[in-house]
Amino acid sequence: VDSIKDLINSLTISQRKFCKEVGIDRSTIYNIMHDIHTPSTLTIKIICDYFGVDYRNYLRSRKNDKTRTD
Hints:
This protein is mainly alpha-helical.
């Protein structure tokens, strides 16, 4: 599963329009893209839903990636 940043970078619309469509504040996307904070589970779910990605699989894959690098 791609990272949240990869999903956002794959947008064919502007981040502004994406934020408006999904109801996420632009500052939240900015913070994600610049590694200022980790998105909440709800934000991850909203973004995954937009891209048709199962957020539970996404969270599992992130957990597995972290376990492999520790």
